[in-house]
UniProtKB/TrEMBL annotation, chain A:
One Pfam assignment: Thiolase_C_1
Organism: Humitalea rosea
Keywords: Transferase
Domain of life: Bacteria
Protein name, entry field: Acetyl-CoA acetyltransferase
Residue ranges constituting the Thiolase C-terminal domain according to the UniProt record: 269-401
A molecular function (GO) term: acetyl-CoA C-acyltransferase activity
From TrEMBL, chain B:
Name by which UniProt lists this protein: ChsH2 C-terminal OB-fold domain-containing protein
Organism per entry: Humitalea rosea
PANTHER family per record: BLR3430 PROTEIN (PTHR34075:SF5)
ChsH2 C-terminal OB-fold domain location: 76-140
Pfam families per record: OB_ChsH2_C
Length: 405, 157
């Protein structure tokens, strides 16, 4: 465990949501501002105490330069340290890492991290997202859909490790099972699904079928977090959730450009669509926390496709490389008795909001016994993985109910 | 970098059309200065790559700086046009109306003989499209109305 492990705590959180077609449509800024004030109120800090403001990247549905400025303008705060964390979907969670770094450097006492998106309300994401995920010169002209871009990694993954559609389908089935218990999971009302249904659903982009894919969340979500140092957390705050450890790794932009030898570890072996920065980020996080995967009670991944969840189970250390398929097929993530994995339903059945950090809120709720109807008994530590790019930027945070000694 | 572009190719595959994601403008006209040589070569039906004389290796056409040496003295060199399939996906749900009439079609990554990987369209000729299958470059006007390098797969390639 390093000095950064369990040195920073979450002392307040806020969340705002809006669903498409329900009530007045909301912008990400509206949701973010509300969530921020909730988090400040929960932490019991005033506007003058917000030392740092960090936001995820500019929401796709609120395209301004310097989104963090829009937010601080609305909140009427004057942080002495402020930035967007722009590493795609990984940046939303990366804000916590930036906060911890600033707090432990002693330049601030409190950090406010806000991440929000409402593209499900304002945008056609199926029609627009591929243009964000692909290189405009060297990829987009060939007509790749977002699934077909991720499928480049998946095709190699199947080829190299003998992964089958049935193995991947276990992720979809288990994600759906968890979603049935979650009040905000978008696929909750669709009922359970079977392996057979997954592997016979219609093709989207080989090998991906409809039920292998994330569903875009038809709404907006904002999550805000107030963090502070251990001494202040203990002296001044009630409920605390500890950043036991964290890590991050950002490797490329565009799927074609990631190929080609790096020349240094761990990517020195050259072209590889399967090995991602998630493994690097997870190793950092475990080392900082002084924990191993065996210590983790629940895991939440932002992987938007069934097969990619198998890859991330490997990268997060829950099974050896190439064993994700056997792990899932053998009950490793079974709702009954397996690792509680994607307990919100995952991106496949909760729905995907690239920013919004719903999965972070879930781990905090689980650690403090608030996950009504899906509570994991005696949960002490959970791991959150956010990514974007696709598979280019990875951020991992391990949260614990108590500081890890 | 100064080869004259034919009248039907303004050096800009977007043809001056703003690149949109839904209602959002998301990018400047293409190509960018570091890639214009690639697009000019395409008008001659040539596939070119960046080459670093200092390191003696090829790079993706986007590369600006040689990873090994740090040199920005990269040259354009013509590629053999031969390689193998590294990965692929057959698209059944098009990303936009422009591609809807073409489904299913296959996008993939080829490993060129020069050691560079390119994202591309794979066309069975006659196939089958599979990892490791040999491919040969061809040039086709795809759905966007732009001449692009594609790769033919199979014995007839």
């Amino acid at each position: 465990m390093s000095a950064m492990g369990s040195a920073t705590a979450i002392v307040g959180m806020g969340r705002a949501m809006a669903m498409k077609g329900e009530g007045d449509p909301k912008t990400p800024l509206q949701l973010g501002a509300v969530a921020a004030r909730q988090a400040m109120a929960a932490a019991g800090i005033g506007r003058h105490e917000v030392g740092a403001l960090f936001t995820g990247r500019t929401p796709q549905s609120y395209m301004v330069l310097q989104y963090n400025q829009s937010l601080l303008n609305e909140l009427k705060i004057g942080p002495t340290f402020s930035s967007e964390m722009t590493s795609h979907g990984g940046g939303a969670l990366g804000t916590l890492q930036l906060a911890a770094t600033a707090l432990q450097a002693g330049v601030i006492d409190y950090a406010l991290c806000v991440t929000n998106e409402a593209s499900g309300i304002w945008m056609d994401q199926v029609g627009s997202n591929a243009a964000w995920e692909g290189d405009l010169q060297f990829e987009a002209p060939y007509g790749p859909s977002t699934p077909s871009i991720y499928a480049q990694s998946i095709c190699r993954y199947m080829h190299e490790y003998g992964i089958t559609p049935e193995m991947a389908a276990h992720v979809a089935v288990e994600n759906r099972r968890w979603a049935l218990d979650h009040p905000h999971a978008v696929m909750r009302h669709k009922g359970p699904i079977t392996i057979e249904q997954v592997v016979t659903s219609r093709l989207v982009a080989t090998p991906l079928r409809l039920l292998d894919c994330a569903v875009w969340y038809p709404g907006g979500i904002a999550t805000a977090v107030v963090l502070t140092r251990a001494d202040l957390a203990r002296a001044r705050h009630g409920e605390t959730t500890w950043l036991a450890g964290f890590g991050q790794c950002n490797t490329h932009e565009w799927v074609g450009e990631r190929m080609g030898g790096w020349g240094y570890a761990p990517f020195e072996d050259g072209p590889d669509l399967v090995q991602t920065g998630a493994g690097v980020a997870a190793k950092q996080a475990y080392a900082m926390a002084g924990l191993t995967p065996a210590d983790i009670d629940l895991a939440e991944s932002s992987a938007p496709f069934s097969y990619v969840n198998l890859m991330m189970l490997e990268e997060l250390g829950f099974c050896p490389r190439g064993e994700g398929g056997n792990f899932a097929a053998g009950g490793g993530i079974a709702y009954d008795g397996g690792l509680p994995f994607n307990t919100i339903g995952g991106y496949l059945s909760f729905g995907q909001v690239a920013q919004g950090l719903y999965n972070l809120q879930e781990v905090v709720d689980q650690l403090h016994g608030r996950a009504e109807g899906r509570q994991i008994p005696d949960a002490k530590a959970g791991i959150v993985h956010m990514h974007g790019g696709p598979l280019a930027c990875h951020s991992v945070v391990i949260l614990s109910k108590e500081p890890v000694a | 970098m100064t080869a004259p572009a034919p009248p039907d190719f303004p050096g800009d595959w977007s043809r001056g059309v703003p690149l949109m994601a839904g209602d959002w403008f998301i990018g400047l006209y293409q190509p960018s200065p570091e890639t214009v040589g690639y697009w000019e070569a395409l008008t001659r039906r040539e596939l070119v790559l960046k080459y670093s004389p200092a390191a003696g290796r090829y790079y993706h056409p986007k590369r600006i700086v040689c990873t090994e040496t740090g040199s920005d003295a990269l040259e354009w060199r013509r590629a053999s046009g031969r390689g193998t399939i590294y990965s692929f996906s057959e698209v059944h749900r098009a990303p936009s109306p422009a591609f809807a009439a073409s489904v299913p079609y296959t996008v993939g990554i080829v490993a060129l003989e020069e050691g560079v990987h390119l994202f591309t369209r794979l066309i069975a000729n006659p196939g089958p499209i599979a990892i490791g299958a040999p491919v040969t470059v061809d040039f086709r006007v795809l759905e966007g109305g732009v001449l692009l390098p594609v790769f033919l797969v199979g014995a007839a390639a």
